[in-house]
Prior knowledge:
- The radius of gyration is 21 Å and the shape is elongated.
- Mean pLDDT is 84; it is low at 1-21.
- The protein is α+β, with helices and mostly antiparallel strands and 281 residues long.
- It contains 8 helices and 11 strands.
Amino acid sequence: MMEKRTLFTLLVMGTYVTLLAQTPVRIMEPLAIMASPELGRDKNAMAALQAAGLADGIIGAAITTSQQDQWPAGLQGDSARDANREAIRHYAAIRVCALSIDEEDVKRSLVGLYASANIHMPEELRPITDIFLVVNDSGLVDPPPVAMQRAASKGPNWTRHPKARIKKADEVYATYDLSRDPAAIAALEKRGMSKAEIEAVVFRSHERNWPEGIASFEKRYPRLKDFKQYKAYQAARWDGKALLIIPSEPNRKVPEAIRPFMDVYMVYTAEAVEVRDKTRR
Length: 281
């Protein structure tokens, strides 16, 4: 397996920079993804790939990995894609080129999902190797501006922190700026977090980077009672505050509106949080 992945990476390296210069895109309608486009057998599709100036290695990868049996489990099948539609919108995707298939009058694009750019995705949607999708353009939109220019860290390992329970859901600091709190940063450093992990915590501890259903007070307030369903872990305490990790994997069954597609973080008053294992606080 390692040899296969290394070979694929080498094939991609020659045109990787060129592809990254192309347009980022967001997949808004998962059902617009074609399951079995058979690019290698379609003359129009092959002509489009060659006209885009793609190297043979990239064309070969597109033909192979555009088949759904090559995708993560969460993308395999219409029902799986529909169930994961909210999370799928958060792929870091690149529009590689336009496609025309079987002489149909439908505008489509070849979309690249690069493994290194999608480590933030839930495990069932995380590509192990770079893959390509054929998507109807009607299901694609331009993504919002990227707030962080570097590849985002996955954040601290939540399994190393004590379990916590949210007792008072409304005592959350939804717009707290950890970067302006030296005591908070010192507490995170004391817990052994790297600079990249701290940056991930700072970025995803603000409401604007939480799940869409709780990204503002108006949306969040009616759903606060559901916060007590979160499986949470305490990352640090300082000055009467507690930082909670809300990891994506253990919270896959919480209501969709509050379900994190990647680990997020919440600053609470310390009194609003109960720590299960107080020896690890």
